[in-house]
Design a protein that fits this description.
The structure is a homotetramer. The first copy, chain A, has helices spanning about 10-25, 30-35, 40-45, 50-75, 80-95, 100-105, 115-140, 150-160, 160-165, 175-190, 200-215. The model of chain A has no long low-confidence stretch (mean pLDDT about 90). Helix content of chain A is about 70%, strand content about 0%. Chain A starts with 7 loop residues before the first helix and ends with a helix. By secondary structure, chain A is mainly alpha-helical. Chain A has 2 domains: about 1-50, Homeodomain-like (Arc Repressor Mutant, subunit A), CATH 1.10.10.60; about 50-215, Orthogonal Bundle (Tetracycline Repressor, domain 2), CATH 1.10.357.10. In chain A, helix 1 (about 10-25) crosses helix 2 (about 30-35), helix 1 (about 10-25) packs across helix 6 (about 100-105) and helix 5 (about 80-95) packs antiparallel against helix 10. The first copy, chain A, has 11 helices and no strands. Chains A and B meet through helix 4, helix 5, helix 8, helix 10 and helix 11 of A and helix 4, helix 5, helix 8, helix 10 and helix 11 of B. The structure holds a DNA duplex (21 and 21 nucleotides). Chains A, B, C, D: This is DNA-binding transcriptional regulator, AcrR family.
Chain lengths: ~220, ~220, ~220, ~220
DNA sequence: CATGAATGAGTATTCATTCAT
DNA sequence: AATGAATGAATACTCATTCAT
């Protein structure tokens, strides 16, 4: 149960955040919320609309904050600098607010169509900062990726994963972690001449195995 | 409703796979399963144990298949070759079997402790192939990453994301997609001399913004 | 929401009257009442006892008023005159105060036994004016009905119906409407020589149909 | 609790019929229904859709039956004969099936718009038989009422009231009761020359009283 | 092989009401 | 005079599951 020193309305929000992140929206009952917040289920409804409103609120807050952080960051400087800053922000956000970001990343499908559209729009806006930085970098030649759209998706997935496992009491500070991700992101985007000379035999074997295990439908 | 030409037992599995992937385990009711499979809820129980057994089965199958594909692949050759093959396999699997892999990636928390331990063990075994390839590459100098454990997590998240968005009728075949991911993975692992000389001022600003938006609790 | 110029206590009464008439007692929640009255649910309880008290109050007022109107009216003059006056009053009351009378007519069953007894006593007292006028008319020969008790019930139901459909902006004024009801009431009570010679065959057919549709259980 | 010899599905219907008639739709909880039917609330839903479906079903059945009875009855013969037959049927139906008819008469407002429209259409169709018989009688001179529409409403209200109080073990059989209503209905429709010469003074007094008690808003 | 019948426990949400301020 | 906070009990309805047939 959350500390009773906090006002009840805030405790309800915190309970929702923690439980939605931990068990998912559908895996969290309102009784769970009430118990964690230290109020009765009836009192819950004094502080919230529906359970889904609570979810939408969390996701909206999460996306707006990320967007607010990305806006000044995603625009100035070279593509390399922009990607570096976006990555840094994204990782720091996911390390500092893993609950918010996990809920935002995982529970889109639990929203009703109306809220889903709203949140998706925010996310799309956010992703545009990434895409344009990548595209610009490809134009200037700073980045060498063959499929810029795929690169964006790969980068975002990779960075968002942080929220799933990062612990501040681990070996890396959030800042160090972000630095590592910046390096990896830039490495990923600058695929160098030193390319894999794929052993055709091995690849052939592997593809045969894949085809056998997951026949093309 | 699924085609009635399939035997009912298989239709139940397919229904579970589709619905768990689409709505999540907790978001799927057994009535949904029964309807999609075209049988009554009572009949469902002729073909399955509990709803959770169905989930555990899917996850087990998914992980075992991946493991079976990774075993011969993860061992021979240079670290670079091994990572290339693992990436290729992982991406092909996620492109070819997005439902299985999404369920396996997302629904671990829905399992009861017993099954969770079993699946986690399989996943850990699988990830060891990646980790040892990365570590070996760092030893040989083929890879230059500062935090090999983080690199593993980043790589896996990035590649698994494929199951969330890849469509076989899009611009890339699964093979081309895998090739792009291999390039990006190797790029990510070989962070080259061309390093970002971070504008300290800008980073300072950004960190101040981040600290403001997500105060360290 | 009701006009805020009215004092709150009155607005609560009006809200209750309107909503109980429109949706019934059980179909009306106290949140509905509060919203319509423009106050919070807590404030509601400054102006009322329980929700049921509010209902009992309305019904008591309604019946007392009707009784007060009927008292001087139900006694003097010939039975014909008395029925004419009672009918006139009853119809005017139901046309002028449809909400009160509808609630009084429909929501007896929603009252707790205590209040129900009280209101029923008032209603019985009121109906006695009607019954005695009818009985007297039968004695004097002014009325020719075979079942005076049934006639009372029929008359009252027929006149009370006015509250369900009369609109003052329709083709008839309340006075004209009352005049029509007086005529019909007196016609109903004076069943003349011109009697139906029922075609026995037709009646037989009909009774057979009725027996088939609604078997005597 | 209803006899367990009946099949459960039927017991649910009977319970709904009785309780909706007795306490109204909103006054009846599904626990009440379950208890009366002798099943659990969950089992209830094996035999019904929603609570409202149950209500709509009852009303539909009730109106359809009445309509089926009225169809052959409302058409042949003189207006007097038609009204006599309609009245007879209506009264017999309300005496034989008081629960059905009370629910149908009282709970229209509890229906959702969709079902309400459907039931209202049936009721309007039924009332047209009455209206056309009345109108035809006015044309032929058999009936002398000043406001035929009002007469229809008055007749229907008066006859429907039967369902509220008639008991088969009382002094009148249903057939006798119907006969009395036929007489009253025809009397009501044939308002004779011998009309009330209203004592103007008395009427004036009364109207003054009415105006005082129920001021015209 | 398949299902209709049945349920205890649970779902999210609302109920009328109280009370301290 | 008015309300925000709080709640136990109820609301209609669904859950996953069992079992006799």
């Amino acid at each position: 149960m959350l500390p009773v020193t906090e006002p009840a309305g805030r405790r309800v929000r915190t309970a929702a955040l923690e439980l939605f992140a931990e068990r998912g929206f559908h895996g969290t009952g309102i009784r769970d919320l009430a118990q964690r917040a230290g109020v009765s289920t009836a009192t819950l409804y004094h502080y919230m609309g529906t359970k889904e409103d609570l979810l939408a609120e969390i996701m909206r807050d999460s996306m707006r904050l990320l967007l607010r952080a990305a806006s000044p960051t995603g625009t100035g400087g070279t593509p390399t600098e922009r990607i570096a800053r976006l990555t840094r922000i994204h990782v720091l956000a996911h390390a500092a607010r893993p609950l918010h970001t996990r809920v935002a990343d995982d529970e889109l499908r639990a929203l009703s169509p109306g809220s889903r559209a709203e949140i998706t729009a925010l996310r799309d806006e956010y992703e545009r900062f990434w895409q344009s930085a990548i595209d610009d970098g490809v134009s200037t030649g700073e980045f060498r990726v063959q499929a810029p759209g795929v690169a964006r998706l790969a980068l975002l997935e990779m960075c968002s994963g942080v929220a799933r496992w990062y612990r501040p009491d681990g070996p890396l500070t959030a800042g160090e972690l972000a630095a590592r991700y910046v390096e990896m992101a830039l490495g990923l985007l600058t695929v160098d001449g030193i390319r894999l000379e794929p052993d055709p035999g091995a690849v052939g074997d592997m593809d045969r195995l894949v085809a056998e295990l997951w026949p093309p439908s």
